[in-house]
Design a protein that fits this description.
The chain is α/β, with parallel strands linked by helices and 196 residues long. It contains 6 helices and 4 strands. The termini are far apart.
């Protein structure tokens, strides 16, 4: 807050209307966000970030004005490109390091889901109005998510889905999902690949 007040005083002293506008914009845009219970989520910060971007643009303009008086235009352009490349590289490394575990977790979950979808596509023809009994399902799935996924992947809306701890002997289509692979036990009917 002290830095913001000092910055505002300096911008007012320099009669920088744009700078004052962007600084005031940050606080006005932050005001409604602060009262959200989940205000620390990154997707809320794009609104006040426009003010920071405006201040950065004004600072860059000042640096460009200074550089044009101190060095040749060609050298200033090369220095500017080198600085932008360095900043982009550092931003990439920082984001890459800070999101490493989230990206690895998302990759593992996406592989699991891809295995589930591939397993559903490989089931072959199923009876009309059949009920699929799942002993295990992918991470973060529930009965509704499983039913919707089965309907979308197989392009059918007549199939029912039940989650069970163990399939009963009467269950014709008993499925389990382990290690990103879907297994199917057809009871009272030949296994896939078998003939009657």
């Amino acid at each position: 807050m002290i830095l913001a007040v000092l910055s505002f005083g300096l911008l007012t002293y320099q009669r920088s209307r744009r700078g004052s506008f962007f600084l005031i914009y940050i606080f006005l845009a932050l005001l409604p966000v602060v009262f959200f219970t989940n205000h620390r989520f990154a997707h809320y910060w794009y609104i006040p970030f426009l003010g920071l971007s405006g201040l950065a643009a004004l600072a860059a303009g000042r640096i460009i004005d200074w550089a044009q008086g101190e060095m040749s235009p060609k050298l200033a352009a090369i220095a500017g490109m080198a600085l932008i490349a360095y900043v982009c590289q550092q931003q990439y490394f920082q984001l890459s390091a800070s999101t490493h575990f989230e990206r690895m977790a998302a990759r593992d979950v996406s592989r699991e889901y891809m295995g589930f979808v591939a397993g559903l596509r490989a089931l072959g023809p199923l009876e009309q109005n059949a009920t699929l009994y799942f002993e295990s399902i992918p991470t973060d799935f529930d009965q509704d998510a499983t039913r919707v996924t089965v309907g979308l992947v197989l392009n059918r809306n007549d199939l029912e889905v039940e989650l069970v701890s163990e399939c009963s002997p009467e269950a014709k289509y008993c499925l389990g999902f382990e290690r990103s692979q879907l297994r199917l036990e057809m009871r009272g009917a030949p296994q896939l690949g078998e003939t009657k």
